[in-house]
Amino acid sequence: MAGMKSPLTVETRRRLYEEDSKWPVKAILRIVAACFALVATILFAIATSFENANFSNTDGNGDWTDGLALAPVVLSFLYNIATLTLHFLVRGGHHFHPGWHIAGDFLVWGLSIPAIIFAVGGGIFWYWAPAVPSQTGMVDCAFFVNAWAPECNAVAYTIGHLEIAGIVMLFLVFVIHITLFAFACVDGHKWRKDGKLRGVGKQDFELQYNKDPEQQSYTT
């Protein structure tokens, strides 16, 4: 461990702290979001494959709702990995314009809202039901009441647990990107404020430089 070197140069770390003292928090949030998004993608993909292999879609909607659940987590993973790579390795610690993150994080959490609604509303776990034993105490799987009992339809419970875990990961991705969006909005406000101050300073410099030549000769 002692021999490990940081992938960031001293100059990059100095530039990061100069431009944004909160960059470690934001970087950690993006790394965590990317990890949660990757796990959610795997969970939803496995659940969808199990569902397609064991159940028939009778709603006529195809699998677009499954794709909707995957959209924000796939986008979150790709966006965060690309942002971190560009920020640290390509741009050498120079920060993006806040508008970049305002748009990117808004797109992720904006897609997450309908994704969560459809993932929760269309989950197989809503069909779970306890087994109803017969008079002999045995669970008759041929009896329609037991169609969704764990003893008769174990795969439905496997799919349901995968869906629940995926929804939890999706919700965590949603919360993290809401937080990052708030950070980006604050940074955008500071960016505009600093821009106005730079503009005022430039005007003062130009006025000072272009003042009356007689006054300049007098002061010199």
Helix and strand run? HHHHHH
Proportion of residues in helical segments: over 70%
The whole-angstrom Rg is: 28 Å
Choose one word for the global shape.
elongated
Q: Roughly what fraction of the amino acids lie in strands? A: under 5%
Give me the secondary-structure category.
mainly alpha
* Unreliable segments of 5+ consecutive residues: none
- Our measurement of the CA-to-CA distance between the termini, rounded to an integer number of angstroms, reads 62 Å
Number of strands: 0
Largest sheet data: none
List keywords for this structure.
220 residues; elongated; 0% strand; mainly alpha
Topology summary:
Blueprint: H1 10-19, H2 23-54, H3 64-90, H4 98-121, H5 154-209, H6 213-219
Q: Any overview of this molecule?
A:
With 220 residues, this protein is mainly alpha-helical. It has six helices and no strands. It is elongated, with a radius of gyration of 28 Å. The N and C termini lie far apart (62 Å).
Outline:
With 220 residues, the protein is mostly helical. It contains six helices and no strands.
